[in-house]
């Protein structure tokens, strides 16, 4: 036998994981009870869901650690509208909750093809028409993450595919929230931002390489230049908080509708802020905690037709007032 031997890896039972998942969702159980099957049962009660495996392919041949499993998901009901609603409920539940650890294993990704109305010609309704059925193809990725990490150091559970997040500011010196707790007063959520999300930049450091007469081609020393870290964030909500961050301060005088709220820009230096950035990948959370930043305008305000207004803000990362490190990054602990 040639090559490097790998431990025996048996991938999770995707069919059991998927059907167990759907049966455990209270919203779906309210519609179909426990009628979620992997094959069409001999005795049928409607409505019902059938998740039939139609294909399976390894993500890689070596190491053997994950597969892509295709399911034909069929929603049966006595009316086309009810079948369509069940299909949409299944897709919504899968996208929102299926990517997670399950009792039998982990589902790392789920995707869907187009849904199609395809009545079952083998079954008729009391009215004599083919039974309404909506059909789609669902692909799930079920890795054996512990086997992959143990044999190669490659661990899909540590990947970050950012889907959404929140950004908070507070006066410098405010204590960071514990672990991944939701920040409370005086932390303020800046609200909607562009789909680019926060963009950390400027962490790289140039090196000034030193040469000598005796070593003219290979440097004998390398002196690192200072870094200029910052976060670029496009704020979208037109609020007093947004304007204060963009202009570096200012005063907000609340109005009572229909009278306007009035913002007056500052005549002093920008007001420093502590910063917390939460990024979510499904149920997993990643958090940047920055003790001291200076928020200032990071570009021009955009006021384009048929587009949302954009207030680009640059948060320059500054040294902590007590001389300690600038902050910390928190990420989930892998079991």
Q: Mind explaining what this structure looks like?
A:
With 335 residues, the chain is α+β, with helices and mostly antiparallel strands. The protein folds into two domains: 14-158, STM4215-like (2-Layer Sandwich); 164-330, Factor Xa Inhibitor (Irregular). It has helices at residues 14-23, 26-32, 80-98, 145-152, 240-247, and strands at residues 36-37, 48-58, 66-76, 100-102, 105-107, 109-112, 116-117, 120-124, 130-131, 133-143, 164-171, 188-189, 199-201, 207-210, 221-224, 230-235, 251-253, 262-264, 273-281, 284-297, 311-317, 327-330. The strands form six sheets. Strands 11, 12, 13, 16, 19, 20, 21 and 22 form an eight-stranded antiparallel β-sheet that branches. Strands 1, 2, 3, 6, 7 and 10 form a six-stranded mixed β-sheet that branches. It is extended and about 85 Å long. The chain starts with 13 loop residues before the first helix and ends in a 5-residue tail after the last strand. The mean pLDDT is 88.
Q: Taking Cα atoms only, what radius of gyration do you get, to the nearest Å?
A: 27 Å
The CATH class of the largest domain is identified as Few Secondary Structures
Structural class estimated from helices and strands: alpha+beta
The low-confidence parts are none
Brief sketch in words of this structure:
16% of the residues lie in helices and 36% in strands.
